[in-house]
Amino acid sequence: MNQSAAIPVNTPANGRSWIANLNLNFSRTQTGSRLSSVERNGPLSVQKAFYPEGPDCAHVYLLHPPAGIVSGDELHLSATLEANSHALLTTPGANRFYRARDDKNLGTTLQLQQTHYQIADHATLEHLPQETLIFQGADAVNKIKIELTPSSVYLGWDVICLGLPVMNQAFDKGQFEQLSEVKVGNKLVFHDRLKVNQDNQLLNKAAGLGGHHVVGTFIAAAPVQLSGEQNRHKCEALTEQLRAKITELNASDKVSISQLDMLFVIRYLGDKSEECKKYFAALWQILRQALCQREANIPRIWLT
Asked: Is this model's pTM higher than 0.85 or not?
C-alpha cells in the first residue's frame, strides 16, 4: 500500500471551474487517533477532529461551502489511515450535483466527485455522508475507491437521490454515473457501476430502479473477519442478525443484504433518503459492534 492517497492538485484552465482537493492523513499516537495532516486546495476543507467517544476514534466533518457541484467542478477527496488509526468521516448536510451548465466557454458539462481511501493494517475508516442530490439535467460522475489490507476495516455508504420529485422535478433529463471499487492488497474484490440516463431508461425499467429515485449502497469490508472457513459461522450469524433488523423495521421490500467474500453489500431502493439513512444507521450499529468492537456513537452533526 502506498504511504499516501494524495490526489494531485489540479488547476482550472478556464477560470470558471472550482477544482477542490482535500488530502487527509490519520495516524495512531500515544494519545489516540489523530488527524495528523491536512492538505487542501479550493473550496473543500475540514474542521478540527472531534472525540465524542474518546481518543481512539477521530470524528471529522467534511465541509464544502458551495454545497453543490456545477459543470467543470471537480472535488477530489483522499484519506490515508496509518496502522491502528480510526476515523469517522461525515458531512453536515446533503451534497448536490446541480443542473449542467450550457456554457460554450466552459468546454465541458461534466461534474465530478472522486474519493480515494487507503486503510493500513488494523486501521478502521467509517465513511457516513449525508445524501447526494442529483438535480434534473445534471452530468454527474461519482467515483469511490477503497484500498484495504487484510486486517483493516471499512464501513461506508452512499445515498443517491435522482431528481427532486417533491418539487415535481423528475430525473428525466441528464445523466448520473457512480463507480465503486474495493481492493484488498492488489486484489479487486468489489466493482460496482450504476449509470442512469435517458438512453438506457434504467431509472424506470423493472430490471433497473423500477421508477424509484433513491438508491443507497452500504459496504462493510473486513477481510480477516469475513473470509475463510473459520469465520463461516460468524458471517452466517451476522447475516441473520442484519436481516432480522430489517424485518423488525418492516423494510424487507426495500433493503437487500448480500454477504460476499470479505464484505457485506447492503442496498436500498425506494423513494425517501431519510428512510434509507435510518435503515443504514440501524445496520451500521450492528456492524460496528461486530467488526470494530465499538458501540455506535451517532455523530452530533446528524442531530442538528
From this structure: yes
